Amino acid sequence: MKSEDRNMPPRVRRSLEKGELMKTKNLILMVSFLVMIGVSGCSCRAWYEGIREKDRRDCYNLDNPIERQECLERVDSMPYDKYVKEREGDLPH
């Protein structure tokens, strides 16, 4: 801990630590995502699922439980196969 950090109120210090933790988690997520894409041969499904996983993690970062649940339902409402069919115009929007 830096000397100037010791002078900060505990609440501010925890907030900064949480921000650094989020940066680390996001970095790990992105590296995992890139590895997954590289291993999977960069398939469209892998890209789609990787983005959905990132969106799910963003939902879990919401403080309000109702907003979090709505976010998760929105992300999970469009599996890849349904997405492809809608994109190709097979299902009504």
List key phrases describing it:
0% strand, flat, mainly alpha, 93 residues, single chain, 77% helix
Main sheet makeup: none
Distance between the termini: 53 Å
**Number of extended strands:** 0
Decide which structural class fits the backbone.
Answer: mainly alpha
What features would you describe in this structure?
By secondary structure, the protein is mainly alpha-helical. It has one domain (7-87). Helix content is 77%, strand content 0%. The protein has five helices and no strands. The protein has helices at residues 3-6, 10-40, 44-60, 65-76, 80-87. Helix 2 (10-40) packs antiparallel against helix 3 and helix 3 runs antiparallel to helix 4 (65-76). It is flat and about 60 Å long. The N and C termini lie far apart (53 Å). The model has no long low-confidence stretch (mean pLDDT 78).
